[in-house]
What we know:
mainly alpha
Amino acid sequence: MPENVSPPPTGVTDSRPGQSEDQHTTDRGALRGRVGVLELVLTVLAFSAPMVVVSGVTPFVIIFGGAGAPVAFAIVTVLLLVFAVGYTTMTRYLPNPGAFYAYITAGLGRVLGLGASFLALFAYLVLGVGTYVFFAVVAKGLVEGVLMGPVLPWYLYALACAALTGLLGYLRIDLSVKTLSIVMVCEILIVMIFDVAVLGDGGPGGRTLEPFTWGAFNSGAVGLALLFAATCFLGFEATAVFREEVKDPRRTIPRATYLAVLCIGIFYVLAAWLLIVAYGTADVSEVAGTNFAGMFSEAIQSYVGTWASHVVTVLVVTSAFAAVLSVQNILARYVYSLGVDRVLPPALSTVHPRHGSPSVSSVTVTAVKVLILLVLAVAADDTAAVYGQFGGTGGFAVLVLMFLTSVSVVVFFWRRRDIVDVSLWHRFIAPALGAIGLGAVLWLAVTNFTTMTGGSMAVAVGFQVAVWAVFLAGVVLALVYRSRRPDVYARIGRQEVS
């Protein structure tokens, strides 16, 4: 019998009366936490590093999309809301915290599911390491250029950041949540102050709505604008990773996912629009092309004041820190899930008896990232290139996982004919539209991968090979477990085994 064909696959729980949704625990304890909807939204959005996006990535969307950049963010917001329909519907019938790992396994089988889990580890690892490097660069600039502090190598900042995020990841999730929430609120407030100031002034061309017209959007490189806009949303998909640590996961996960996409989408649309208004539609593309790094800071200094520019400089540093802390927590929980399933050493599934955190997996993740940073400290000549290459590669890998998840949702509900309380929109139409849309974005990423990574063709090919080699390694390991360790194979995807 093919995998995941009726009768229901092992470990997949439906909503029949008398059946608990969250019974899965390990013999080493279960993760604990009391995270609410708003806290979860702020936690996963910290991954996106909104301050970094507004000041560093939005100018690139303007370079490619011109004055129509806000439309690119709006289109991506709609696409990801459609993706979220199937993604959150799965939470009702797959009460496992494995996120991509569990969802792809449930729909496409254990072999592809384990490949996806390895790809997720790779994606978040390279994103995290790349962001550590970015943090080190901006923190070094802040200390030396603004605070007139000592001149230190960049890697000391990166290693110190890794140590601190590792400590917070080791402790109870609530502490990380509070830290991320404070940083996120500060980021949102300063950008809102800028938005209000520009809206009040009107800019050189007035409060024009031209950036929302199709003509403005269609005048640029539409595909690249959408591609770079899509990479600004990474992180919202991690809501399901924290399933064991939230209040009422059946309601909290869907609400947090929708809110995360909607809030960050509106935030980016408004920020992009008012950044364009600040410079005027006629000149904004030229400004973005010649001064993308200082575009936002100079605009906020002009409209709000020098103090706001200094605040932005600090918040870019804290935003990068919040992003790597979010990555730390996500990675630790993926490693923990693979430890629970015995795919990786069972010790990785150990839960701290007092903090209720995946302590061993968190320490392991920290050690791996420190090792990579030490290698980069010796081998990397251009830190800006490292951030671009790692960030682009990690973003591409997450897009692959999102596409596979959309396909998995369609297959899962097609095979589960016994599920009758889900509408056609939720189980087929929305996931199919999401798969088509994400497939288009993924194609843009493949054909423009050199632009995404900011490197040479040789570098782009090398990272592409790494992405698919990691995925293939997971597939091969699943096949090995199927033939030699059927007990481990049966557990793949956080599935309960009787």
